[in-house]
Automatic annotation (TrEMBL):
Keywords: Antiport, Cell membrane, Glycoprotein, Membrane, Transmembrane, Transmembrane helix, Transport. Belongs to the CTL (choline transporter-like) family. One of its GO terms (biological process) is choline transport. This is Choline transporter-like protein. It is found in: Apical cell membrane; Cell membrane; Membrane. It comes from Scleropages formosus (Asian bonytongue). Pfam families: Choline_transpo. The keyword Glycoprotein applies. GO terms for molecular function: antiporter activity; thiamine pyrophosphate transmembrane transporter activity. It comes from the Eukaryota. It is a multi-pass membrane protein. Choline transporter. InterPro entries: Choline_transptr-like.
């Protein structure tokens, strides 16, 4: 009763306990719409988001990312260049510098060199390249700047000048080309095979280019890896699905067994934690005893980056020993004085298993949340892509060989049309060409692309948080209807999950959007802080880095706190139908009046669900490792692990999928525990076990609290 008095003493500070309401028997059905203003704002934001998506679709062109472009800005593989899907770079060295690599990555590898569309990535013959190895220009047909098919048939006649350095010709001779993401890039398979008849100059050019081209190809070789990974998925997808099915069954079995095994598992985990700390105490004492006669001390050692040296000093092990002894003492005291609250947590976990068992459809609801999140992510990604690729291409007349006096008049300011460009108009400068420069950034839409991208991110975060909030409120409504059913399961309403979902959408879109908006603002501030930290990291002094680290830490904590408040506010909204602010205040006050129970239940549940996740993910991961690595053979050679390029691909896929499945199942279970806990606290405050105000909690909980419902005269 001492614990009860302590919690009652905080009632005045965090509000008065809830009063008995004779008309309340579960989630209120007669409710009205809440937070209408925020609902209108959310609908307006969604409408604006749709408008942004339409504008992005009208002005954007994702072909800028999907297809390579030649020097005229025309896409390879479509339109006039249909049948010529690859682009050839005349001087890849210009793409290999640090600055150009970043610029090329952001602009679809539109490097500052002549680029042509080709059918296949073939090269010049060795005699052709060696005859021109000391030339500075390569004379080809007019197709040089538009399309070549194939490149090996280029006519070496003087019609148009295309700059081609001697180093490029040596590269063309040595490196077989391969197609990577539609780009003709050298294969590095023969990097170490320098022909013996090469001169010192050619060797130097070759060696220099090897290092530079490696920089460019480091990212583009990912396509070959991607193809092999796709092949692994194609050959093992059936077994991956079986592994995920096993993870789903293990998660379901674990949750259902908690109904019977929760006390055993919880006490085993508690004893296990105490045992691990006790072993740490023994080990630290053993290490301290080994080094107690050592003359080396912390003061003699001083500061060193070799942290293993500190493990050879007795003071280090003495400090560890003291810390672990204090931790063990705290855990034992908590176990001694909070034993009743641990029993309450175990009973609530068992009751949650019963609730999930009576409403199995709740385990499928994460699929709805997952599908809605996929829609949000896909819409955000497509909108961002179309916004990033909006704007018409701009072409200007450029002299490829501007060193001659006859080309000095061409300064790159004159716009042109590559389809109607006539080089005969520039007879004094034969290297003048109509070259793609950039995409148009003028106009109201193009000038506000950055602002639209920010709006895209904000709307995306708001929608994602709303979807998560909708799922939490829906599950809370379903589980609350279970708790407040006096005779279980006969009094549980029909289709409780569907009813809770409809109530949430009909009455509480505004409240859910309100909570999601608060969380979105905090998350956006964290994104801005991360961006600023990344942007100015090199220029920051230690004081600025410390301030930035403190800000990031504070907003991380704030985000966690808001998620906690929102989660419990949604539970109260699902039960009582109040607006967000009132629900958040009532939930926070209720939890603070029972803070010790909150802490114990939270930690016990976290420990138990962490053990479940480790059990599911670890078990399925070990099974997947032995299966896909070939250590487990199926009869009849149903699956041959030797067909996999990377056996770790299906293993990682199964492990990640098993974690997501376990997280989905356990998130439902965790929401059930939190909902039943709030209902339990409300039940304690509102009812007293009399005939007029009976408890709704289970008999196990009443037994732990030494409470019982009084039976009316003449009743059973």
């Amino acid at each position: 009763m001492g614990g009860k008095s302590e919690e009652e003493s905080s009632a005045s500070e965090y509000g008065e306990p809830g009063k008995y309401d004779p008309s309340f028997n579960g989630p209120i059905h007669k409710r009205s719409c809440t937070d209408i203003i925020c609902c209108i704002l959310f609908m307006a934001a969604i409408a604006g988001y749709m408008i942004v998506g339409i504008l992005a679709w009208l002005y954007g062109d994702p072909r800028h990312v999907l297809y390579p472009r030649n020097s005229t800005g025309m896409f390879c593989g479509i339109g006039l260049n249909k049948g010529k899907p690859s682009v050839f770079y005349f001087d890849l060295l210009k793409c290999a510098t640090a600055t150009n690599v970043m610029a090329a990555a952001l602009n679809g590898l539109q490097c500052p060199t002549t680029q042509v569309s080709v059918c296949v990535c073939s090269l010049l013959t060795v005699p052709q390249a060696l005859r021109l190895v000391h030339s500075h220009y390569f004379f080809v047909s007019k197709a040089c700047l538009s399309s070549l098919c194939p490149l090996a048939t280029m006519n070496i006649t003087v019609v148009l000048i295309c700059p081609l350095s001697p180093s490029l010709l040596v590269m063309n001779t040595l490196f077989p080309l391969c197609t990577v993401l539609g780009r003709c890039l050298p294969s590095l398979g023969l990097l170490n095979n320098i022909p013996s008849n090469f001169t010192l100059t050619e060797n130097a050019i070759y060696t220099t280019f090897s290092f530079l081209v490696s920089d460019v190809l480091s990212g583009f070789n990912l396509r070959q890896v991607g193809v092999r990974i796709f092949e692994d998925f194609a050959s093992s997808w059936y077994w991956i699905l079986i592994g995920l099915l096993i993870a789903m069954l293990l998660s379901l079995i674990f949750l259902l067994l908690l109904r019977f095994m929760a006390p055993v598992l919880v006490w085993l985990l508690i004893v296990g934690v105490l045992g691990v700390v006790a072993y740490g105490i023994w080990h630290c004492y053993w290490e301290y005893d080994n080094y107690k006669n050592s003359s080396t001390t912390i003061s003699n050692l001083g500061f060193t980056t070799n942290f293993s040296a500190y493990l050879q000093v007795k003071e280090t092990w003495l400090a560890f020993l003291i810390i672990l002894c204090i931790l063990e003492a705290i855990l034992l005291l908590v176990l001694l004085f909070l034993r009743t609250r641990i029993l309450i947590a175990i009973a609530l976990i068992q009751e949650s298993s019963k609730a999930v068992g009576h409403m199995m459809s709740t385990l499928l609801y994460p699929l709805v949340t997952f599908a809605l999140l996929i829609v949000c992510i896909a819409y955000w990604g497509i909108t961002a892509l179309y916004l990033a690729t909006s704007g018409a291409p701009i072409y200007k007349v450029v002299a490829l060989n501007s060193s001659t006096n006859s080309c000095l008049a061409i300064n790159g300011t004159e716009t042109c049309d590559p389809l109607s460009f006539n080089s005969s108009a520039y007879m004094s400068c034969p290297s003048a060409q109509c070259i793609f420069i950039k995409y148009n950034t003028e106009g109201l839409f193009q000038q506000n692309l950055f602002n639209l991208q920010i709006y895209n991110v904000l709307a995306f975060l708001w929608c994602v948080n709303f979807v998560i909030a909708l799922g939490q409120c829906t599950l809370a409504g379903a589980f609350a209807s279970y708790y407040w059913a006096f005779s279980k399961p006969s009094d549980i309403p029909t289709f409780p999950l569907s009813q809770a979902f409809i109530r949430s959408l009909r009455y509480h879109v505004g409240s859910l959007a309100f909570g999601a908006l608060i969380l979105t603002i905090v998350q956006f501030i964290r994104i801005v802080l991360e961006y600023l930290d990344h942007k100015f990291r090199a220029a920051q002094n230690p004081c600025a880095r410390f301030i930035m680290c403190c800000l990031k830490c504070c907003f991380w904590c704030l985000e966690k706190f808001i998620k906690f408040i929102n989660r419990n506010a949604y539970i109260m909204i699902a039960i009582y139908g109040k607006n967000f602010c009132v629900s958040a205040k009532n939930a926070f006050s209720l939890l603070m009046r029972n803070i010790l129970r909150v802490v114990v239940l939270d930690k016990v549940t976290d420990l138990l669900l962490l053990f479940g996740k480790l059990l599911v993910v670890g078990g399925v991961g070990v099974l997947a490792f032995f299966f896909f690595s070939g250590r487990i053979q199926l009869p009849g050679n149903a699956f041959n692990s030797q067909t996999l390029n990377y056996y770790w691909v299906p293993i990682i896929t199964v492990i990640v999928g098993a974690y997501l499945i376990a997280h989905g199942f356990f998130s439902v279970y965790n929401m059930c525990v939190d909902t039943l806990f709030l209902c339990f606290l409300e039940d304690l405050e509102r009812n007293d076990g009399t005939v007029e105000k009976p408890y709704y909690m289970s008999k196990n909980l009443m037994k732990i609290l030494n409470k019982k419902n009084k039976v009316p005269k003449g009743g059973k």
